[in-house]
Amino acid sequence: MTGEAADPTAGDAWIQHEIRRTAFEHAFGGPIDTDGRAALALRFDHGLANFARHVLPLTIERGLTVSQAHNPRNWDLRENEGVTPEEMDDWIRAGHVEVWNHSASHRGISTPEDVHEEIVASLAEIEEQLPAAAGKVWGFNPPGVPGEDYAGFGKGTHPSDWVTLPGRTILAHHAVASGHVSGTTQRVLDGRVRDGLAHVTLDARGVGEITKRIDAVVRKRRGLQLMLHPSRLGMEGKLTVEALTMILDRIVELRDRGDLVTLSPYQLHLADAGGVARDRAAN
Ligand SMILES: [Zn+2]
């Protein structure tokens, strides 16, 4: 690898990021009009065994395109057992699943070589394993690495995270990246693509709390991304398949009623509810 490409300056990273974002916005045709409605997207982080067995049949049946945050070097983990790249590629080709880079192996990192392997090499490996996703892995979902360091990046919570080497590398190689910027759980829907947006993790939450959070974005015409680790479905104290089904049914009910639109996580970044101008006019 060349030093320059592996260690972009903040300026280089931002320029590359902007150009990738230009391509992303054009690939999706620009802002997605929600006709004044709230928008919701579902993200699933690895756990391919339970994802294939329990989640995908439910989301396909309800016409939901969901994302997989993928680690191309973790196929042999127990939580991914039984699913092949060919099978996952079929889901992508059929339009049921979109893919986000979730790092090569979901481990803590420290050196520039680690950064390259986990963030940059990972992208090429995903595209090689999943040809249907080639050219369409626009985004990076930073992996959670409890108790370990991510070469200073943390979780993408603080502005300063994004000028660290991992932060600059993520931006240089992706059109969009999620994070945990505070105050961004209920997303503004104005068609402007933003980085660092937070999500709500379903794993240990009850149906009642999730329903309240969905109702809140419906009221405010905001956007919500719900995330689940499928590997934890049905574990003690965690969401069950039945509870997940109830949440999905609630989402479909609101969609059928015209209260919200369901989008993929990539699409959610482009959602435009026209709410900003409308709310200002109303106040
Ligand atoms: Zn993860």
- Give the integer mean of the pLDDT values: 95
- Write down the CATH class: Alpha Beta
What oligomeric state do the depicted chains represent?
single chain
Rg (CA only) = 18 Å
Order of helices and strands: HHEEHEHEHEHEEHEHEHEH
Give the CATH architecture: Alpha-Beta Barrel
Helical residues, percent:
40-55%
Query: What are the bound molecules?
Result: zinc ion
What is the β-strand count? 10
Low-confidence stretches: none
Classification by helices and strands: alpha/beta
CATH superfamily: Glycoside hydrolase/deacetylase
**First-last Cα distance:** 54 Å
* CATH topology title: TIM Barrel
Protein name: Polysaccharide deacetylase
Describe what this molecule looks like in 3D.
- This is Polysaccharide deacetylase.
- The protein is an alpha/beta fold.
- It has one domain (3-282): Glycoside hydrolase/deacetylase (TIM Barrel, Alpha-Beta Barrel), CATH 3.20.20.
- It contains ten helices and ten strands.
- Strands 2, 3, 4, 7, 8 and 9 form a six-stranded parallel beta sheet that branches. A two-stranded parallel ribbon has the order 1-10. Strands 5-6 form a two-stranded parallel sheet.
- Strand 2, helix 3 and strand 3 form a beta-alpha-beta unit.
- Helix 2 (10-27) packs parallel to helix 6.
- The longest helix is centred in the first third of the chain and has 18 residues, at 10-27.
- The mean pLDDT is 95.
- Bound molecules: zinc ion.
SSE topology sketch:
Layout: H1 3-6, H2 10-27, E1 32-33, E2 38-45, H3 48-61, E3 66-70, H4 85-93, E4 97-101, H5 112-129, E5 139-140, H6 165-173, E6 176-177, E7 200-201, H7 207-220, E8 223-228, H8 241-256, E9 260-262, H9 265-268, E10 271-272, H10 275-282
Parallel strand pairs: 1-10, 2-3, 2-8, 2-9, 3-4, 5-6, 7-8
Helix pairs in contact: 2-6, 3-8, 5-6, 7-8
